[in-house]
Every structure is written in C-alpha cells, then in structure tokens.
Write a structure and sequence with these properties.
10% strand, Beta-lactamase, binds 6-diazenyl-5-OXO-L-norleucine, 2 domains
Length: 311
Amino acid sequence: MSSPYTTELLTDTVKQAHEKARNQTGGENASYIPYLASVDEDLCGVAIATADGRLFEAGDSRYEFAIESISKVFTLATVMDSIGSEALREKVGANPTGMPFNSVIAVELAKGKPMSPLVNAGAIATASLVPGDTADERWDRILKTQSAFAGRQLSLSEEVNLSEQTTNFHNRAIAWLLYSAGTCYSDPMEALDIYTRQCSTLITAVDLAIMGATLANHGVNPATQEQVLHPDNTAHILAEMMMEGLYTASGDFAYTVGLPGKSGVGGGLLAIAPGKLAIAGFAPPLDGNGNSVRGQVAVRAVAKRLRLNLF
Ligand code: DON
C-alpha cells in the first residue's frame, strides 16, 4: 500500500510548520551552559523523515546544534539492547518523575532510584551501564550508536563539551547521590563524564528526523537500512518518551499532540509517529520546562495537519 503522506503533502506541511514556528516569539536560550546562551536565538529549522526513507526540510534544518538531552534516548537504546529491557527497568526505572529534568528531590523521594532513563539522574545511571572497559570505550559505543541512528558519522563538539564539563556541578551532585544509593553502576565521575560528552554531540534537524524515523521504523534506519536496535525495544523507548520526554510538560504533550517526544536544552525537539514518520524541530529559545518554544509549535503543526495523534 502506498503512503497516504504524499510528497506534495509533506513538502507543504514542513514549509507551513516552519513558517508558523518562525513567527512564534517567546522563550530564552538555556543559560546554565555558557555555549548554549551564545547560539543565535533566531535559528529555526524543521525536518520530517518518513519510515519509507523520504526527507522534507525547511529553514535552518542543516544547522548543527548540541543534541543535549535527546542523547538520552540513544544511550538508553544501546544499554537496553545490551542488558535487556527488564534489567534496565529494575536498575533505572520506567516511570515519569513529575519533576524537572535535573531534580535532586526526585532521586531522594525514590530512595535513590532515578525512575526514568530520560531525566538527568536516570541518564547518568544509564551511562554507567554502557558496556566497555574504559571511559573511552563506552564513549565510543555511544557515539557509534548516535551515528548509526543518524546514518552518518556524528562528532563531539569540543567547545560544547568544555562548556558543559566545566559547569556541570549540579549533575556531579546527582552522580554522587546515585552512587551513595547504589544506583550508579560505575565510577560516578566516569559515568558523568560520558553522559556530559553524549550531550555535546552536534546534530542537525535533518539528523534528528532520521534518528527519530529509525525509532518509527522499528529500529531500522530508513536511510541506511541498518537495524540499529532490537525491534522489540522500540516500543519500550517510545513509551519512555511519551511519559518523560518533555519532562514536566510530558502530560500536556501527550494530551495535546499524542505522540512520544523528546526535547533537549540545545533547542532540539523530536516527535515520533510510530510506523509512519518523525518530526524534528530546532530553535534555541526554551520555555520554563526546558522545551524549545518554536520546536513545539513546529511539531504541533505537523502532527495536527497529518492527524498523527495516536489516541
Ligand atoms: O545535563 C544537562 O543538564 C544538559 N547537558 C542536558 C539537559 C537537557 O537537555 C534537558 N532538556 N530539555
């Protein structure tokens, strides 16, 4: 059966969504990571990648920005594939926290269990479970995974990484808190180092859309045809994204858009229509929950026009 999403429809949809997003005002660049505060706040890009391998883009869709928290999805994928979804759920958890992404209180309330691999605590715990004998081996595995999802070799920005590594004091506290509770499964500063590096990779909205389309396509990258993760695990990952992908706004996003999503403080926003396509938005200014203001406008516009709400 041919796709109901014709090339004409998707070309027009991405253009319209970009137009709508570009005209949206409000929000501020993340300022707690100095690099992010310096990115041009007017940048705005949108991309759609379909599970059948087509790509549509508008605006600053080839601008390279920091992946930040969206990286949590791909580290989760590689750890889930290596230790199994049940072991991961037991060690890290699979529930929304209802708290901000870097909450210490959430960790305390759950007696040290991070609850979700998509908040900072859970992502640091997940990074501590990446297979490898050394930090560099683990990092290698993460970068390979991110690159396989994107279908091209991604790289770390030394500038972003330095900016993060020299200011991540709050995350250091989280890593030590996990360690004291027995929920950091390697040296905590090594886990944090890897986590911080994974946030410092540069991607474009086009990369992000293809990474998402790989999840929409049961783990097969539609551009390269590589099976990047076990098909059984995509449902678990999408469920995590639905519950916690936009942090304290995840419920609102499920209620209004009805798709699993993931945001990053670099301004990236991803939403996935399983079996169909992925939508990526990029624009640096964030709302109070840490989600891209214009990215959300773009994703909402595409989801509405294509009637993608799962419910
Ligand atoms: O650890 C941090 O705080 C950042 N490297 C990533 C946080 C983030 O992207 C939250 N997303 N909206």
